[in-house]
Amino acid sequence: MIASLRGTVIDIGLNAAVLECAGVGYRVIATPRTLGILRRGEDAFILTTLAVKEDSMTLYGFTDSGDQEMFTVLQSVSGFGPKLAMTSLSVMNAEELATAISAGEAKTLQRIPGIGKRVAERLIVELKDKVAQWQPSSTGTDAVGTEHGPAGVAGEPSAALSEQVVAALIGLGFGEKQATAAVDKVVAQQPDADSSRVLRAALAELGPKK
Predict the structure, then answer these.
(1) With bands split at pLDDT 50, 70 and 90, how would you rate the model's confidence at 158?
(2) Cα separation of 42 and 19, whole Å?
(3) What letters, b where the CB count within 10 A reaches 16 and e where it falls short, cover 119-140?
(4) Mean pLDDT across the chain
């Protein structure tokens, strides 16, 4: 199992980064919050979880040990795979998820794309005891040091930014039409937002409304 990576960040996308370690490039799926800490050309250390399927092996990366633990806990629920777990952590961090589950806030959980009423209720029933004693750290385990801000480039053309975020949403399983509509709405409301902020806001926009 690959538990962590230390190396040079050679590429950062909307939902993944590539770290070169001893001459090998590892593609790691991560949340906008994690990607926002990484910097191209700089060394980084991130925690990783390897998901193995019959036809693929996928690395998921985290700068916070609490998020990594929640990623695993979420998947203990039937039908809750790594993609939905990562989407959940893109909208809410581990502490927010634990709070919503412990308090039985199904409507809050339904803000996450892919989680409807039944799934939200199942999360609460199956995980309430598991997250009841969740002990969030005041700072978390920031594996790459101080957060410098989002990874998006300030002033990047809005058209190119929108295309990148739409592509990332399509990769998460959303249709092109609904992804485009959500991104256009976010960009119109937040014209100065970088790609990471737009992606997170679009994910929230695509989630079920209260």
Answers:
(1) low
(2) 10
(3) bbebbbebbeebbeebeeeeeb
(4) 82
